[in-house]
Amino acid sequence: MLEHLNYGLFYLINATPASPEWSIDIATFFAKDLISIVPLLAAILWLWGPRSQVNSQRQLVIKVAMALAVSVLASFVLGHIFPHDRPFVDHVGYTFLHHAPDDSFPSDHGTVIFTFALAFLFWHRVWSGALLMVVAVAIAWSRIYLGVHWPLDMVGGFLVGLIGCVSAAILWSLFGQALYNGLSHLYRTLFAIPIRKGWVRD
């Protein structure tokens, strides 16, 4: 039943040789480059921001990192427990993005971006989480559209992201403040010169 749904949704989304070239180009940008918003936004939140908000921003970055660590590990384990070939390995649909023929479930890109979006939804603002969820859906769509993932790979990434965020919330309650204090001290030591020059927040 699920596999039938998986195939049906894939054929509904997957591009074909008749698809416009501009749509392939946009999807390729989403699939390959849009994920860079994760490290970029995390760095911005840690290094800059209003003085009254920088501590909460850095705590958010740490929670996100914890959630990502758990979700990526869970994704790795699930990929080995439930191996699933990519569409092009099964000679299904059309492929417009080069990719290694490794296991597809759950999607690594989907896991990372959905974890990131959910973390902002839970711990930052509803609007920022919703905006990042739009980005996550765009990335998920693009990788199905270009033929390197199944729809259920992305559903798996979303669910693993939920597991990562719930786990991070539990871990934060246990030793989050101590971790924050330790990382803040390390940051102020390593970035002493940029902090003193005012390039980044202390």
UniProtKB/TrEMBL annotation:
Class of the enzyme per the UniProt entry, highest EC level: hydrolase
The alphabetical list of record keywords is: Hydrolase, Membrane, Transmembrane, Transmembrane helix
Chain segments annotated as transmembrane: 26-48, 60-82, 130-148, 154-175
Domain spans labelled Phosphatidic acid phosphatase type 2/haloperoxidase: 61-169
Question: What reaction is this protein's catalytic activity?
Answer: di-trans,octa-cis-undecaprenyl diphosphate + H2O = di-trans,octa-cis-undecaprenyl phosphate + phosphate + H(+)
Q: Name one GO molecular function term.
A: undecaprenyl-diphosphatase activity
Give the E.C. number(s).
Answer: 3.6.1.27
Tell me which GO cellular component terms the UniProt record holds.
plasma membrane
Q: Which InterPro entries match?
A: PAP2/HPO, UPP_Pase
Q: Which NCBIfam families match?
A: PRK11837.1
Instruction: Tell me what this protein is called.
Output: undecaprenyl-diphosphate phosphatase
Organism (species): Enterobacter soli
Encoding gene (name): ybjG
